[in-house]
# Entry
Amino acid sequence: MADDLNLIGADETAYRLDLTAAQLKVTYGALRSFFDDLGHDEADVKAVAREVLDKLPGEHEIRAIDLGRELARRRAARDEG
# Structure
C-alpha cells in the first residue's frame, strides 16, 4: 500500500498541460488570486503555488493577452467549423 503513495517522485513531473492563450490568462489569474489569499499559516502551500507561478510567463506577458479578442477568435473558429 505504501508503494501506491509514491508513484510520482518528489521532483518528478506529474502532469503536462497545453493551454490556449485564454486558458493561460484565466489559469494565471486564478492561481495568482489563490496565492494572494494565502496567509502566513499556509507558507508551505504558498511556496508550492509560487513554484507554479514561476513556471508560467510573467505578469507583463499575461497582461498582454487580450481575453476578449481570444474568446472572439474561439467563437469565430467554432462558427466556421
Residues 19-80 form one domain. The two ends are 48 Å apart (CA to CA). The chain has one domain: 19-80. Helices lie at 2-5, 21-37, 43-55, 59-63, 67-80.
